[in-house]
Amino acid sequence: MLIEKTVKEKIVFQGKIITVRCDDALLPDGKPCTREFIVHPGGACALFVKDGKILLVRQYRYAYGEITLEIPAGKLNPGEDPAQTAARELSEETGWVAERMEHLFTMYPTPGYTNEKIYIYRAHGVKEGSVHPDEDEFVDSAFYSAEEVKKMIDEGKIRDAKTIIAVQQYFLSLQK
């Protein structure tokens, strides 16, 4: 059996977005071990394609010290359905309002040290609204042709995993 058993949970840091735990656990063979990981509420993102062009947001990501290109995304609020999160983030960051969100994937971005899940959606029935980002959020958005996006992924200009997964799924759907 591959299951490890938690013996004692220990919170070592409680932040606004994450909690860091250092738990005592037992390996499948019964030997004790320590498991350090980040508890994260999860996130959701929205792929929106209009007239064959993909909507991306540009924003500065402090942890990487650079501006990234990503599909709109954000953290789940307590008790919030991931589809609502994806729709909310699309609207807040870009001003586009989706009538319906289609679930594509749920991904584990880094299973070695966090329990975060990212829910990837495709937006449908989208209409223009107004941009209303969070007060500490500075983003801009633009549509890019599929060819531009492919080239940016190939050249390493788009490195965000959720964006690459969503876009690759879109490219696969075009081949059907």
Q: Which residue ranges are poorly predicted, with pLDDT under 50 across at least 5 consecutive positions?
A: none
The sequence of SSEs as H and E is EEEEEEEEEHEEEEEHH
Oligomer: single chain
What is the strand content? 35-45%
**Tell me, what's the shape?**
elongated
The profile of the biggest β sheet is: 4 strands, antiparallel
What portion of residues is helical? 10-25%
Structural class: alpha+beta
- Total strands: 14
Residue-averaged pLDDT, rounded? 96
Describe this structure in words.
The protein has helices at 82-94, 146-154, 161-174; strands at residues 5-8, 11-14, 19-26, 32-39, 43-47, 49-50, 53-61, 66-70, 73-75, 96-97, 100-107, 118-124, 127-128, 139-145. The chain has 176 residues and is α+β, with helices and mostly antiparallel strands. The N and C termini lie far apart (40 Å).
Topology, element by element:
Layout: E1 5-8, E2 11-14, E3 19-26, E4 32-39, E5 43-47, E6 49-50, E7 53-61, E8 66-70, E9 73-75, H1 82-94, E10 96-97, E11 100-107, E12 118-124, E13 127-128, E14 139-145, H2 146-154, H3 161-174
Parallel strand pairs: 5-12
Antiparallel strand pairs: 1-3, 2-3, 3-4, 5-9, 6-7, 7-8, 7-14, 10-13, 11-12
